[in-house]
Amino acid sequence: MEQKGLFARKALADFGVADGNRAPVAKVLGPVSITALGIGAIIGAGIFVLTGTAAALYAGPALTLSFVLAAIACALVAFCYAELATLLPVQGSTYTYTYAAMGELVAWTIGWDLILEYSMGVAAVACGWSAYLNELLKPAGLDAPPEFLAATGTAIVRADGSAGVATGNLPAALIVLAITLLLILGTRESVRLNNVMVGIKLTVVLAFVLVGAGYVDTANWVPYIPPNSGTFGQFGVSGILHGASVVFFAYIGFDAVSNCAQEARRPQRDMPVGILGSLSIATVLYIAVAAVLTGVVPYTKLNVADPVLEGAQAIGLGWLSLLVEVGALLGLTTVILVLLYGQSRILAMMAVDGLLPGVFARVHPRFGTPWISQAIIGLGVAAVAFTTPLDTLGELVGAGTLFAFILVCVAVIRLRRSEPDTPRPFRVPHVPLMPVLGMLACLGLLAGLSLFTWVRLAAWIVLGLAVYALYGRRHSRLRRPDGGAA
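-> C-alpha cells emitted (486 positions)
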C-alpha cells in the first residue's frame, strides 16, 4: 500500500496495534450500559423542545409520522454504524471508519468536522441545561442573577427593571466542567451515573405518556394532517416531510455510542445491541410523546420552548409538571456526558495516528481514561458555553452530523469491496442498497440547510486543512518508513 499519498488508507490490522506509550483503556461496558449511553445521548433537548415546534409550524398531529420518517433515515445509518463498530471495535467512530475506507485526508476532515459538531452540541445543550435549572430553582428564590445566565455581552434586564450586559452563562460552564471531571475519574463511574439518570429520565417520559393518555382529547387530532397553507413545508404532506427534517436532529446521539467500542467487554455483540437498541427505544418514546402531546394540547399552541411542560400543565397535575422539569434537566445532563465522552475518544484516536499532538492520547494510569484530552475538551467547551449565544451554537451541529452520516454509509460500501473476506460479526443487509438509501436521506436533509450554515462549515473545514498541512501531514504515523507500527 502506498503510505505517502493523501488518500493512503490505514489497514484494518493496524487498528489493533497497541501503542507502547498508552495504557490500555478499561473494558467495562456491557450491552445495558451501552444502550443507556445511547438513550442518554438521544433523548434530551429533542423530545423536550423540538416536538412542539415541529407540530405547531409544520406537521400538526401528523408529527407522529414525521418521527417515523426521521427514524427510518436514522435506522439506515445506524445499521452502517453497527457493522463498522464491530468490524473496527476501537475508538474514533466516523474518523476511524473513514481512515480505513477512504484514507487519511478524508479521515482528518471528518475528525475535524466532529470536533465542531460535538463541541458546539455540548455547549448548546449546556446553555439549555442552564435555563432549565434556573426555572426549577426560581420558585424557591434560588435562581441566578441574569448577569450569569446569558452569553457574554448579551443585553439583559435586571430584577429591578434596569438594563445591563451579561457577564457569561455560568451554570452552563459549570455543568460542563463537572461532567468533565466525572469522565476523567473513570468510565465505569460515569456510566453508573448515566444509567441512573437515564432510568429517571425514562420514568419521567413514561409517566407523561401513561398519565397523559387518560387526558387526551381526540378532537385535537382532527384534522390529523392539517391542510397545506399554500407554502411548501407548512402542513399537508410536505409539512410531514419538513417536520421530519426538523425532528431528525432529535435522534442525533446514537452515533456517539460507536466511540465506546474499545471499552465494550464484547463489542461484536454489544455494539449492535447498543446502537440499534437505543435508537429503537427512543423512536417508540418519541412517537408516544408526540401523540399524547398533540392530544392534550392543540398543536397550534405548542410553539413554545418547553412543549412537554406545557402538556403537563394542561393536564393540571402539579407533581407531573415538576417531574417533567426534573426529567428535562437530567435528559440534558446525559447528553452532555455522552458527547463529551465521545469527543475525547475521537481526539485520542487522532493523536494515536499522529495527526494531533500525542498528549491527546495519554491515558491516566489509574483511571484508565484519556484524561488530558478530556480536560482540554472540557475547558474549551466550558469557555464556549460561557461566552457564546445558544442560536449561534446550534447552527452547525446538524450539518456536521449529516456530513458524518454520509461518510459512514460510504465507508460500508468501500470496505465491503476492499476487504470482502474480513469477518463481519454484524452485517448491513442489502448492501449497497441500504447505505445508498441512507446517503440519499441525509442529502435530502442537508439540502434544507441555510447558505450561511454552509459558509461557516466551509470556513471551519478550510481551517482544519491548514492545521493538517502544517502539523498532521508532517507527523502522521502512516507516513513513517515502518508504516506507523508502534
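Confidence is low (pLDDT under 50) at residues 17-23.
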